[in-house]
Amino acid sequence: QRLTATWHMVRQKFTDSAFSFESKLRSTLKSMNECNNPQAPNTVIPHILPFVMICERDLEDIYSLRRKEESLLQWESSSSDYGLQMMLQHLQEGRTFAQNLATYRRNAELILDDPESLEDLILDVFRTEFHLKFLFGSRGALRDSQERHAKFNQILSALSAHCESSVESSV
Fold first, then answer.
1. What integer is the mean pLDDT of 153-158?
2. SS3 string of 55-67?
């Protein structure tokens, strides 16, 4: 509820961007998550979130979700085959990402004038290790995914509480 209220507050402050997201980007994101929409030909960074989510899970995680009749991945609960077909499609997309790395690199070189001149610190932004350390700190990056997700939930709650307090003070 808090995250929904925060989202509504952000939408009120940034109406044009919210309209653009709702009308154009949300449907595109949904189709990419459902593996219905192939990547655009000029893609520099492909949409790999579903593939990463599949790779991060282990069998115990999947079995425990089946016992509780809930799922982390959106397509698992809405499909008669428990999302196996879509999971296969996402795994095939992961293989395609790896095969097209040269194309992504070429596209990046066209968009970024001279990528060789970029400093290593700027390139770190695109590394998984950077994101883990940025979100969870050096020690937190070494923790297992359940602890990291719990920490991320605490961060979202703190951000939501901060936004709620700023809304109440402005009223």
1. 84
2. HHCCHHHHHHHHH
Name the CA radius of gyration of the chain, rounded.
19
DSSP at 38: P
Higher pLDDT, 83 or 151: 151
Rounded CA-CA distance 22/75 in Å is 20
| Highest mean pLDDT, choosing among 45-49, 51-55, 93-97, 126-130 | 93-97
Helix axes of 26-33 and 49-56: crossing angle, nearest 10 degrees: 40
Q: Which one is predicted more confidently, 114 or 161?
A: 161
Angle CA 21–29–144, to nearest 5: 115
What's the distance, CA 98 to chain centroid? 18
The amino acid present at 60, given as its one-letter code, is E
- The mean per-residue pLDDT over the stretch 6-13 comes to 78
**Two tokens, residue 144:** 């297992």
Number of other residues whose CB lies within 10 A of the CB of residue 51: 20
Q: Which of 148, 162, 137 is nearest to 6 (CA)?
A: 162
